[in-house]
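pls design
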C-alpha cells in the first residue's frame, strides 16, 4: 500500500453513506487510482466543513486500519480527495 501522508491531495473514488442519523455523510471506503481493492474506513474520528465563496469543503478525519488520514469532499466539483 502506498503512503497516505505525502502532503498532497490525490483524487479518489469514495463509497459514502448519505443522510444517516446525525452525520449527513459518512465515507465507508475509498479506492486510489491503480488499486484494484478499496480501502475500508474503519473509524470516523471527526468531520468539519470549511466554506469558501459559493462552495464548501467537507473534511473527514478517518482511520483506515491503523492509518490516520483525511478525506475531503469538494461540493463545487463533487470530487473526493485523499489529503495528508
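designed seq:
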Amino acid at each position: 500500500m502506498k503512503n497516505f501522508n505525502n502532503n498532497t491531495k490525490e483524487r479518489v473514488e469514495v463509497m459514502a453513506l448519505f443522510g444517516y442519523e446525525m452525520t449527513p455523510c459518512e465515507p465507508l471506503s475509498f479506492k486510489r487510482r491503480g488499486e484494484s481493492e478499496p480501502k475500508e474506513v474503519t473509524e470516523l474520528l471527526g468531520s468539519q466543513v470549511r466554506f469558501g465563496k459559493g462552495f464548501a469543503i467537507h473534511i473527514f478525519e478517518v482511520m483506515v486500519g491503523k492509518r490516520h488520514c483525511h478525506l475531503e469532499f469538494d461540493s463545487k466539483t463533487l470530487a473526493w480527495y485523499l489529503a495528508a
